[in-house]
Write a structure and sequence with these properties.
By secondary structure, the chain is mainly α. The protein is built from five helices and two strands; from the N terminus they run βααααβα. It has a two-stranded antiparallel sheet with strand order 1-2. Helix 2 packs across helix 3.
Length: 76
């Protein structure tokens, strides 16, 4: 699953990743790394992230398309 931090923070707060890093008091590189998928936030940071943005954890995740999974099961 991909974490859609950049899209969510822009949509909910209108913030850039830079602004989010400032609010979280974290290095900019850390937040950019999460947004690019290179690293994942810890559970503690995930809670802080959701609190800062004002969203639920589920709002940050991009679900995989269900149809692709169904096609695989049917064709298998």
């Amino acid at each position: 699953m991909k974490i859609k931090i950049k899209e969510t923070v822009k949509q909910v707060k209108g913030w850039s990743l830079y602004k989010l890093a400032q609010v979280l008091n974290l290095p900019q590189q850390t937040v950019y790394s999460w947004a690019s998928g290179r690293t994942q936030p810890s559970y503690e940071n995930m809670d802080r992230l959701c609190e800062a943005i004002g969203c639920g954890i589920g709002d940050l995740f991009e679900a995989e398309p269900v149809q692709g999974k169904l096609d695989f099961v049917v064709n298998y």
